Amino acid sequence: MDKFSLSGKIALVTGASYGIGYAIAKAFSEAGATIVFNDINQELVDKGLNSYKADGIDAHGYVCDVTDEKAVGDFVAKVEKEVGVIDILVNNAGIIKRIPMCDMSAEDFRKVIDVDLNAPFIVSKAVIPSMIKKGHGKIINICSMMSELGRETVSAYAAAKGGLKMLTKNIASEYGEYNIQCNGIGPGYIATPQTAPLREIQPDGSRHPFDKFIISKTPAARWGDAEDLGGPAVFLASDASNFVNGHILYVDGGILAYIGKQPQ
Ligand code: NAP
Ligand code: GCO
């Protein structure tokens, strides 16, 4: 079982003050890793540090906008000086803008692409050289159901997450010979702040229509919890997955396998 241990490893999880990133970082810590995370402002980093401390985790938090290539380069250099070379990178930071495509501005479209696709490229590019020197590395890109499926109002997000699936495969192809494995995790519908608008209780006290829709489309008949992603992430970050490369592991309760429950 030592193959699943992350002892002695330094893991960077981007955008991990809360949500899925936080849950993955917590699972990594429980597997022995040293946790480094960033968020977009000091308030969020402080919030994250307090949460990690409350969970008994001595995390290292930094302010960094993952879309800013120079800031990311400076951030990674600072981490390497203050903590050590990054062994595991999780490109988790992400945004979504739910707008019908023909109503969406090019600026909004570009912003989603910038955070959800360009940033994983920027951060991966910043950490790979040291992974090559060290002789190993793990990169995990947080993809989505929208890496495979479309739906109304998420054109930019789906384009970004579809692109992230192929960036994952390309990093795997280009850097596999250096013992760097790059894989993706495709969460299903997870109960986090990002999906809170889709689960809001209606004025009459009923569940949100989209909430009921997702329950009908998920064999597990529930939304995922961020903690459901911890184990799969530890697997992809550990030596247990050293021959897994370019794979997108869907952690979705079975959504992609299921046509959906017949309406009653
Ligand atoms: P979330 O609750 O919105 O958290 C995203 C985190 O990323 C926030 O801390 C956010 O900071 C940070 N962030 C955003 N832009 C950033 C930037 N430019 N630089 C640094 N940090 C930035 O989202 P989540 O639900 O935990 O999702 C995390 C990842 O999983 C995202 O990539 C998302 O697309 C993906 N995902 C989510 C679901 C789901 O159902 N929740 C399913 C599949 C995939 P702010 O608070 O300032 O925005
Ligand atoms: C949406 C949701 C989804 C989830 C996730 C599903 O509006 O459809 O936000 O996109 O965030 O990506 O895997």
Describe the protein's architecture and organization.
The protein has helices spanning 19-30, 42-54, 69-82, 106-134, 155-175, 209-217, 230-237, and strands at residues 10-14, 34-39, 60-63, 88-91, 137-142, 180-187, 248-251. The protein has 264 residues and is of the alpha/beta class. It has one domain (2-191, 224-257): NAD(P)-binding Rossmann-like Domain (Rossmann fold). It has a seven-stranded parallel beta sheet with strand order 3-2-1-4-5-6-7, with helices on both faces. The radius of gyration is 18 Å and the shape is globular. The relative contact order is 0.15. The mean pLDDT is 97. The chain binds NADP nicotinamide-adenine-dinucleotide phosphate (NAP) and D-gluconic acid. The site of NADP nicotinamide-adenine-dinucleotide phosphate has 28 residues, from helix 1 and strand 2.
Order of helices and strands: EHEHEHEHEHEHHE
Overall average pLDDT? 97
Structural class: alpha/beta
Largest sheet entry? 7 strands, parallel
Count of DSSP strands: 7
Structural features:
264 residues; alpha/beta; Rossmann fold; 7-stranded parallel beta sheet; 7 helices; 40% helix; binds NADP nicotinamide-adenine-dinucleotide phosphate; binds D-gluconic acid
Record the SSE blueprint.
Elements: E1 10-14, H1 19-30, E2 34-39, H2 42-54, E3 60-63, H3 69-82, E4 88-91, H4 106-134, E5 137-142, H5 155-175, E6 180-187, H6 209-217, H7 230-237, E7 248-251
Parallel strand pairs: 1-2, 1-4, 2-3, 4-5, 5-6, 6-7
This protein binds NADP nicotinamide-adenine-dinucleotide phosphate and D-gluconic acid.
